[in-house]
Amino acid sequence: MPNKMQTIIAVDQNSTLSTRDRGLNYGDGFFTTAKVVDGQVQYWAHHKARLIECAQRLGFPELDFNSLENQIALHIKAASLNVLKILVTRGEGGRGYGLPSECNVTILLSVLDYPSNYSALTKKGVNLEISPIKLAAQPHLAGLKTLNRLEQVLVKKAMQTQNCDDVLVLDYNNNVIEASAANIFAIKNKCVFTPLLDECGIKGVYLQSLCAKLPVEFKRVKVEDLIQADAVFVCNSLMGAVPVKRIEQQVFNTDDSHALLTKLLAKEAEC
User: Fold this and answer.
1) Considering the entire predicted model, what is its pTM?
2) Is 134 one of the annotated active-site residues of the chain?
3) Which is the catalytic residue, given 35, 106, 146, 178?
4) Which of 43, 133, 156, 226 has the highest CB neighbour number within 10 Å of its CB?
């Protein structure tokens, strides 16, 4: 049975969060961001699965989705094209890092504007450079979208001095992991592959939905593997699959990339 001890806060100008909240103090929590179209959350089944996995792996109580889904429906019913952010913390309590004896989960719901540049990027493609910031290995958190995002903050800070739309983020073994806020996948000889995320990185909702439509191989990926691919994409649940136009000096034809992915999806749908 779900643990009913959870507080749902719809974020607006009158919302408050305790200064003792563990999410604020220790990053003790997780979140997901979803695209909302005409009052409906896109890929909701995958977002829900992400929240369940995060709660289980981080030792949170089972979330009460009946209450959560009712509150979400209430707050997005007038949304035509927006972003829903669901942020979950362990609430207050505990001494220092120690866990509270009783957990009162806090859930923050935010309805945000949809990024204005995503439509243009989808059409023209993205230019990528390699980030000087590398990701550390932590298998216990690998794949999860936790509140510990300081590495991504540093990636975005470094991007301010780079001439690109986004970056390839590597680990300390120089394996490609992801973009600054998206997953990476590529097509080579009609086969789709993506970086293995067993030590770091986030397992994105769009990527999971793609795996339900196409055979996708998770493996160690180097920059050279992407440069030699027939097509490369960045993807997340807000913008979908966006073709890569350039990686450093290697240029891709985005029209060909779109056509290749469309053909693969159509072929798989026929099977």
Assistant:
1) 0.93
2) no
3) 178
4) 226
